[in-house]
Each structure stands twice: as structure tokens, then as C-alpha cells.
Design brief:
Helices cover about 40% and strands about 15% of the residues. It is an alpha/beta fold and about 250 residues long. This is Alpha/beta hydrolase.
């Protein structure tokens, strides 16, 4: 990415633009670059900020979705941010949900894309063949509708990560925490506007998951992205950004 990672007071993040704040939350295996085309689209009208979630830095005994939500709370207070729009993919959406339930006063609106929190069909409880590059390539391709979206650079990054013993233990710990933390009974507490932007071909958090979120979130809209898997902002960025822009225009005019 062309954006510099800022490091201060124990936080790492990317920041661009001015105006209403959009906080972009990456997934478990997500990179900041996943959001590059979102930043490019919105930085001229909005204050866009991406905190790096400390999956590899928090004490492993406390690592979980709630710990990341607490980290987000500390980060927003550090940056003196309020009434932000949280935009979360996969685990990032789950963190956004947990945070919003606990601190709805900080959040103007919520955007979820391929979010965990109800059900996900990810790597499962282990990486049985993490030494096999072809196996990891197949798993990364599973994330997308078009396997070509899983570039060699992306597969290389995931392969390197899952073959780092310290990191893979944390990834599995985090994944198990997400599976345990089912939010179905808490979603009715979220009364702010929520936009669900979902890949019609998502195999990780299938369309049924989006429909259930839509049913359980009282003030939600559901937008489908055709020929798209688990990361619409990467695979169909123009469609994703169009949906996001319409939602922002609507909620911010109120």
C-alpha cells in the first residue's frame, strides 16, 4: 500500500482524509491492503482510518473477540473519535458487532460484509496440511468466487503466516473465540442503521447468514453482490463502494 502505517501509544493504523470517520476493520487473515480501493474511493469526502487489530500482540490467554473490541474502544478514545461508521469484513465485522453492543453511543452506523458472529465455514479447528503450498492456495481460493482473485502475493502471505508457529496458534485461538461467541441473542440491541453488503457466492459466511443477520438486526438493509465471495471490497470493489456510498449518503443526511 502507498499509505504509511502510523505507530503511536501502542497503536498501529493507517489514516487518510477528513470529515465523517469511517473505521475499517480487517478480518482474521486480512491485510490493510484489502481496503485499498475503499480508501481511494472515500478519502476525498471522509476521514478513513484502519486500525491494525493486535491479533499477534495481545496476551494469548486473553485473546478473543471481546479483547479486540476492548482494543477498539481504547483506540477510538485515544483518537478522540465518536459517532463513527464501523465497516467490518469477516472477523472485523464480528468485532464491530461486539463493540456496538457494548458501546452503541460511539457508533453512527455499522456496515458488515462477510461478517462472522452467527456462523462461518472457515479453516476449521486446524491447518492439517499447512506445509503444503497447494493446500493453502486452495483454501485461499475458497474465499473468493473467482480463484484468480487469490493472487500469488496473497497466497504467499497466508502461507508464511500459517507456517509461523506462534502466529498459527493465535489464529486458531482467535477463530475458536469467534465460533464460541455467537451473537444471535444480542443483535436486537443494535438499533443504529446497519448495511449488510454480501457476496452471493460467499462460501465462508453463506447467504443464509446474511439473511439471518438481516432478520435479527432491527434497522438493517441487505445488499447482494453477484459473482462474489467472502470479501466484496476486494473482489467487486466498485459494487461494494457504490452500496457503501448510497448507505452513507442516506444515513448522514438524517
Amino acid at each position: 500500500m502507498t499509505y504509511q502505517v502510523i505507530e503511536e501509544e501502542g497503536f498501529k493504523y493507517i489514516e487518510a482524509g477528513k470529515g465523517q470517520t469511517l473505521v475499517l476493520l480487517h478480518g482474521l487473515m486480512g491485510e490493510l491492503s484489502n481496503w485499498e480501493l475503499v480508501i481511494e474511493r472515500f478519502k476525498d469526502r471522509y476521514h478513513v482510518i484502519i486500525p491494525i487489530l493486535p491479533i499477534y500482540d495481545l496476551p494469548i490467554l486473553t485473546l478473543g473477540v471481546k479483547a479486540l473490541s476492548r482494543y477498539l474502544h481504547r483506540f477510538l478514545k485515544f483518537k478522540s473519535l465518536n459517532q463513527v461508521v464501523l465497516v467490518g469484513n469477516s472477523l472485523g465485522g464480528h468485532v464491530g458487532l461486539v463493540f456496538t453492543v457494548a458501546h452503541q453511543e460511539f457508533v453512527k452506523a455499522l456496515v458488515l460484509t462477510g461478517s462472522s458472529g452467527l456462523y462461518e465455514n472457515a479453516f476449521g479447528g486446524s491447518f492439517p496440511r499447512r506445509e503444503s503450498y497447494d493446500y493453502i492456495k486452495e483454501k485461499v481460493e475458497f474465499t473468493f468466487y473467482d480463484p484468480a482473485t487469490a493472487t500469488k502475493e496473497l497466497v504467499d502471505d497466508v502461507f508464511k503466516t500459517v507456517n509461523d508457529r506462534s502466529r498459527v496458534i493465535r489464529i486458531l485461538t482467535m477463530a475458536k473465540s469467534a465460533i464460541r461467541h455467537n451473537m444471535s441473542k444480542e443483535l436486537s440491541k443494535i438499533t443504529i442503521p446497519v448495511s449488510l453488503i454480501w457476496g452471493k457466492n460467499d462460501k465462508v459466511t453463506p447467504p443464509e447468514v446474511a439473511k439471518e443477520f438481516h432478520q435479527l438486526l432491527p434497522n438493517s438493509e441487505l445488499n447482494w453482490v453477484d459473482q462474489c465471495g467472502h470479501a466484496p471490497m476486494m473482489e467487486q470493489p466498485e459494487v461494494f463502494n457504490d452500496y457503501l456510498e448510497k448507505f452513507l449518503d442516506r444515513i448522514l443526511l438524517k
